[in-house]
Structure formats: structure tokens, C-alpha cells
Amino acid sequence: MPNWGGGAKCGACEKTVYHAEEIQCNGRSFHKSCFLCMACRKALDSTTVAAHESEIYCKTCYGRKYGPKGVGFGQGAGCLSTDTGDHLGLNLQQGSPKPARPSTPTNASKFAKKMVDVDKCPRCGKSVYAAEKIMGGGKPWHKTCFRCAICGKSLESTNVTDKDGELYCK
């Protein structure tokens, strides 16, 4: 029986994708709103997508998951040569070779705490990562949570006001 007026199925949510909202990647169709990195949920486009079989990733997450492993690989943009590693709890002096393994055992709970210490969205309580962060009322918000508490309208820096930790449109 013919499929009258339908479209392809979305590679992420399996619902029908109509032509006006379709993004094609690796022979599959996606809704614009479903075309997200499978690891960090960052919105993708034709310049930022990296496909692996039936999975789609941003280039950073793809590199971390499928790229070369070892020192200096899969770490995103890297760091400046003046970076001493202090933010990771390492005490490395400039000019000295960096050891492959610390000579003394690291405090695992201290290291884990720093790696997990991510801002939380006041609206949904979930972690807010840099790619999706919007600041409002001095707090980090997800783009999707950055809405008026009364009418639900999306907010921008020009039409937002805050009171008692909630966001409202002006």
C-alpha cells in the first residue's frame, strides 16, 4: 500500500520527518530539533557533524570516542603552553618534563569532584554545559529552560528580568 503524504522516519526519534523540517545525514533523515550530538546533545549542522555508522556526534565528541588515544589526543582544543595544570590539582613546573603518571597517587575523590563540578540549571536541576549555557539573573540556564516563568515565552538578554530566582519577560 502506498505511503500517501508521509515522509521518512527520523533517525533519532523514529517519527515522520516532513520535507520542511528535514536534515539528511549519512543517508538518514532527522528533524532539525533531533539533529543533536549523541554524547553531549549539542545542536549539529553540516559543518559540525561527524557520523559513525548510525550514530551522529559533534566533532569533539567523535574525536574523543573514535579518535586516537593517548596523551594529547581526544582532548578538544588543548591547552596553552603556559598552562601548568593547577586547575587539575597537578603541580607541574614550567620547563620540566611532564610525567606520564603522577609519581604520587592522586586523591581520586578530589579529582572526580573537579571533573563533575558543573553548573546546574535552576529550572530543571540538570547540568548546564558550556555549549548550551545562557546566563540570566547571574545563573546558568539551558537554552530550552531560558523561558518566562508565567507565559513560557523564550527569553533573550533584551527582554528578560529576574525576581526571586525566576525569569520573566519584560
Characterization of the model:
The protein has 170 residues and is of the alpha+beta class. Among the domains are: 22-66, Ribbon (Cysteine Rich Protein); 116-169, Cysteine Rich Protein, CATH 2.10.110.10. Helix content is 10%, strand content 21%. The protein has helices at residues 59-66, 108-116, and strands at 8-9, 16-17, 22-25, 28-31, 49-52, 55-58, 133-136, 139-142, 160-163, 166-169. Strands 1-2 form a two-stranded antiparallel sheet. Strands 3-4 form a two-stranded antiparallel sheet. A hairpin with a 6-residue loop joins strand 1 (8-9) and strand 2 (16-17). 13% of the residues are buried. Residues 108-115 have low confidence and may be disordered.
